[in-house]
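Researcher: Next sequence.
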Amino acid sequence: MTTTEPAGVAEILAVLGHGDDGPVTRTAEVIARLAGGQVRPLRLAADLSPRRAARQVIQVLHQPGTVTGVLSGDELSRPVWQPVAQQSAKPVVLVPAGARLPRRIRRVLLPLDGTARSAAAVAGTAERFARGGVELVVLHVFDAATVPKFWDQHAHAGQAWEQEFLARYCALPGARLELRSGAAAEHVAKVAGTEQADMIALAWSQRLDPGRAAAVRQTVLDAEVPVMLIPMPADLPTFGPATPRDALMGSSHDHICRSRRDPGGHRQPRARPDRARPRRPAVHRRRVHLPRRRS
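Model: Next structure:
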């Protein structure tokens, strides 16, 4: 399945309210330059209720030429941006109050939870960033349940695991992996600051039920750079070629989360151990302190 490119010039929707709209406009301009598109400002009327304002934004955002929307992500704007982010089928960029705004996007932090669904959701966006010369820093956070059994045994085994992670979930030139341990919500904004990322791109389920989207909630609160929320539709495949919907600049990506079945539905044979393996992407190594397994 492929995603159809929108007709005409890609439009970046800049949603303007009643406060300081400069950060929203500048962020939209930076994304538009990367996308080769143009900014489409949308000024919300002063007498609109948050519900009607969100409905208006979603209506414009879902027009064929619009590829993403940029909104103020401060607490005063939450009644508007939250329903927009939850209902939009396209990426939504939230600009925190006092955000650091570069002239162009050079580095993006891409948190991945190690599932095919999240990798498929961000695949098109990640590919377009990479094609635009943006460095991708992939962040994966272990917890006590997901730490690999071999981690304290052989350094070579750990390196092989990291290479396989990138090959499976973000097989793009120049992507590198950063690992942390603990809760993802505690690390995303911190790592973005340490890595001097210009943007954070997060896949999410668009659900804010209690106990869900903790990383999204905390990242939006703590981030000092714009945060792109990429919807993760329920019907994305768990395995097989990635089929991102309405990703940034409307691209599809077909080599992340590879399937072991050919287009005819037949299972492909496993590679023999003695066959030559392709080179894996380079991995940025960093010592990570992980929780010890209980005996």
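Model: The chain has a mean pLDDT of 79. Helices lie at 22-35, 50-61, 78-87, 116-131, 155-169, 184-194, 214-222.
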